[in-house]
Amino acid sequence: MTITHLYVDRTVADNSLAARFAERLGLTPIIVPDTRQLYDTLKNEADPWSGGKQRLLLTRNQGAFIRQCPGTKEYICCDYQILHIGTYCTMDCAYCILQSYFHPPVLQYFVNHEDLLRELDAALDQGRTLRIGTGEFTDSLIWEAWSDLTPLLVERFARQDRSVLELKTKTTAIGDLLDLDHRRRTIMAWSLNTPRIIATQERGTTSLKARLRAAAQCQDRGYPLAFHFDPIVLYPGCENEYRQVIDTLFQYVDPGNIVWISMGTLRFMPALQPVIQQRFPDSAIVHGEFITGIDNKMRYFKPLRIDIYRRIAGWIRHHAPNATVYFCMEDETVWCNSLGFSPDTHGGLPAMLDQSARRVCGVH
Ligand code: SF4
């Protein structure tokens, strides 16, 4: 979606990034004395979810830039850290959890990068391995046309040997990253889905082939890669189409250069269902065989999840027998019945992923 209005929090009006965003977007900044006014205006619109994608607020992150990924104790969690650079997204996926995560959802970008880099320095100096990414509360690479933060982060991670940065995206905005001296401390990651789901549920994103071409370009420049099959959506014929996606994936990338591949079936808080129905009236994704999970999210009935996971894992292993495949937010039964082991037998999921980062990225 096109950004039509640029709001600048009065407290960051002098930040050089505000001028740069204004120039590159071709918009006159609107200085906002109180950001709550913008939130209130949006909340009262008929479609605040679309409105929030067209209005960008540049502001200061007043809380922590580094946050623990909000897992649930009932499911096996990977101990991922979020680098909180901004919120929401210019792309528009029907299932996007961010539509119901923020109230109201609004594009925000935090411009107090000195604070971010200071906090990051302190975290990287702690001596423990961080797996950290910018792609949880926003897409990692939608900001590339306006901000040079990502190259700074890639270069910062290249100056240390313990931790990895993951940039997770559905874009192909890799141009400014290809020539960087990343030292394999940055993992370029793409969310993948079938062409049918991309075409019908992921408005404004790039095609599967475009994502894979971008991944191959990054691989050619030495970047390690990751892929996320999330959300896996069940529909008639989906098995064959997911299989084709996996066969295509391995025509583009070297299995030995993949740090990890995650899988997660469609899940959503009940509050998201009416939003999807209102904004994506042709979408059938909310009409599956769902149960309410112990985290109160709607999920496919467990045997259905296990069946598709087992198939996808088998197709991945056919091409990449040694790839680290894991689940985002599943329980031990699903792990054992789909992958044949519990992460506990490998020292736990965080240890499994740390080990992959060491093996493929060379951190220690
Ligand atoms: S690309 Fe990711 S963050 Fe953006 S709308 Fe889609 S699911 Fe949400």
UniProtKB/TrEMBL annotation:
Pfam families given in the database record: SPL (PF20903)
GO CC annotation: endospore-forming forespore
SUPFAM superfamilies documented for this protein: Radical SAM enzymes
GO MF terms, alphabetically ordered: 4 iron, 4 sulfur cluster binding; DNA photolyase activity; S-adenosyl-L-methionine binding
UniProt-recorded name of the protein: Radical SAM protein
Source organism of this protein record: Desulfatitalea alkaliphila
